[in-house]
Amino acid sequence: MNQEFTASRNEATEADPMEVMTRFYAAEVRYIAAGGAARGADFSEMAACMHTDVAMHQGPSTPFPGDWIGVEELERFFANLAETWISMDIRNPHYFAADDGVAIKMQGVLTSRATGMTIETELVQVITMSDGLIRDWTVYWLDPVSLQRACGLI
């Protein structure tokens, strides 16, 4: 692990969940806009917000279902996400914070790389933090069928 990455993780131990997620979402939008791993985008800014034992859970009806365990798996997930969406805009995030986590209701405007279709949808993410970093993360999409349709899966 390089020193810059380690320093970022150590700084995160003092951050509150809303600050960590605000930083993460800004990095995520930049990563998607840069085209993800396939186009040389840097994942380290996002990874710096994640606990080494991070886990993300996506429902079975999304284009990216299942449990994504560990930073390397999440890097693969976000590479897939960047291949799925050519652009992503996070709007109107509403944070419901606790000492050890946060729930965030937001709107997403996503444009599919496969079809060019743009959708507006709502989602909720429930995140548990550990040592000031994202540890467990469950994503609930209001309309996962719209995701499938935009991706040309149905």
Description of the structure:
By secondary structure, the protein is an alpha+beta fold. It has a single domain (3-150), classed as Roll (Nuclear Transport Factor 2, Chain: A). Helices cover 34% and strands 40% of the residues. The chain contains five helices and six strands, in the order H-H-H-E-E-H-E-E-E-E-H. It has a six-stranded mixed sheet. Residues 1-13 have low confidence and may be disordered.
Q: H/E element string?
A: HHHEEHEEEEH
**CATH class, please?**
Alpha Beta
Taking the alpha carbons of the first and last residues, their distance comes to 41 Å
Provide mean pLDDT, rounded.
88
**DSSP helix fraction:** 25-40%
Structural class: alpha+beta
What's the total count of β strands? 6
Question: Describe the biggest sheet?
Answer: 6 strands, mixed
- By CATH, the topology is Nuclear Transport Factor 2, Chain: A
Helix run count: 5
Précis, in short:
With 154 residues, this protein is an alpha+beta fold.
Key features?
disordered N terminus; 5 helices; Nuclear Transport Factor 2, Chain: A; 154 residues
Write the layout of secondary structure elements.
Elements: H1 3-12, H2 17-33, H3 44-47, E1 50-58, E2 66-69, H4 71-84, E3 85-98, E4 101-112, E5 118-130, E6 133-141, H5 144-150
Parallel strand pairs: 1-6
Antiparallel strand pairs: 1-2, 3-4, 4-5, 5-6
Helix pairs in contact: 2-4
